[in-house]
Specification:
2 copies of one chain form a homodimer.
Chain A: E1 24-31, H1 42-54, H2 57-60, E2 62-72, E3 76-78, H3 82-86, H4 90-99, H5 120-123, H6 130-143, E4 147-149, E5 153-159, H7 160-166, E6 172-176, E7 181-183, H8 190-214
Antiparallel strand pairs in A: 1-2, 1-5, 2-3, 4-7, 5-6
Helix pairs in contact in A: 6-8
């Protein structure tokens, strides 16, 4: 393909992931307890390590770096500010993962009944839901030794209206922000995989709780 | 139980793992790309990080910290010196994991035919071999959120003579050196799990290669 300068060279084709969705609910989760790669300088490592330790990256193996949840035509989007997102701890992460699939998201921990998780079986659960997609991704990461993804994110995305109209999951998981990918050299990406397994455990717990309450198996009942 | 001082307090009962084995072949593998825990001081983290980066801990998710392989009554034990073990890189790790199940272990890379992996199906392969035990351990680590193991090792152990006489695996995997265990706080030990998955991939490759050569499925044929 020709570049705008007229010269011929390889291009990366970018996809606008939310273009088909009128009101996308989106969550960006940076995966891995370590966000620096093998060729990083000491200064860059020190900077990343500080952020990883101060955020949930080191303790949890991932950190949530962005969130917007569509809550309705009048209320619009729930979108916690950057300052809140930067300071999230273990309890906040549990809350945010619930907020993402709730009609009443809130940043208040320990107040009132909490998020209702009304969309959990549409978005996280079910045969095509986010949990199933994460488990599939995990299987790939257990085997692939070509790429190591540093400071890379998983994007969770769904459209509430399409979900409720279609009565089936349109939730997708995408690997994004792959600016820092290095050669795996025949070794699996154990840093990404560890964080992914930790995230899977959190999502599994939410799906299991919802099933306990409703008596379903996390699949959509229509 | 009473202590030697006469006072009553809890005891840890230690097991001598190799006591039943006349000539144990033993390998000690420190698991995890990060060997420091959440309460470590900055100075301790800097010390560990240096070691983790200089060894294979950061790139591979584990490092081999000790090895002895029994090779016969006359030749005794193959036991590479500490200096060699401290400097192992990716290729050395591949070699050492093969040496452990070979009758002709050697520290020379790229020379001659290399280790014969004659015991691979007895030790790594088979329904009760080390690979099967590692996969079982992985399943536990994907779910348990009580303990985080820092700078903890897996010990691989078998007795060559008992193996050949019994014609079945007596290989065992044990979790050892658990001096730095902290509360998991409801989070899986993603650091240990990532390293364990990486080790499983290395061992799987060796078992698969052996199967390719022999046409067996890694089980003992008697």
């Amino acid at each position: 393909m020709k570049a705008s300068t007229g010269s011929d060279h390889p291009h990366i084709v970018l996809q606008d992931l939310t273009s088909a969705s009128p009101n996308p609910s989106v969550m960006d989760i940076k995966i891995g307890s370590r966000t620096w790669g093998p060729e990083a300088s000491d200064a860059y490592i020190a900077k990343c390590l500080k952020k990883d330790r101060e955020s949930t990256s080191t303790p949890l193996g991932f950190r949530i770096s962005g969130l917007q949840v569509y809550t309705g035509e009048e209320s619009g989007f729930y979108k916690p500010d950057r300052d809140y997102m930067r300071k999230t701890g273990l309890d906040d992460v549990k809350l945010i993962l619930r907020n993402f699939v709730s009609s009443n998201p809130s940043s208040e921990t320990g107040q009132g009944p909490g998020p209702d998780c009304s969309l959990v079986s549409y978005v996280y659960g079910g045969p095509n839901g986010i949990l199933a997609q994460l488990v599939e991704l995990k299987t790939w990461f257990e085997d692939q030794t070509m790429y190591h993804f540093h400071a890379c994110s998983l994007l969770f995305m769904f459209d509430q209206r399409l979900t409720l109209e279609g009565a089936r999951s349109n939730a997708v998981v995408k690997l994004i922000d792959f600016a820092h990918v290095t050669d795996g050299n025949g070794v699996i990406d154990h840093n990404f995989l560890g964080g992914l397994c930790s995230l899977i455990k959190f999502i599994s717990n939410i799906v299991a709780e919802a099933n306990d309450h409703t008596g379903t198996n996390g699949e959509v009942e229509v």
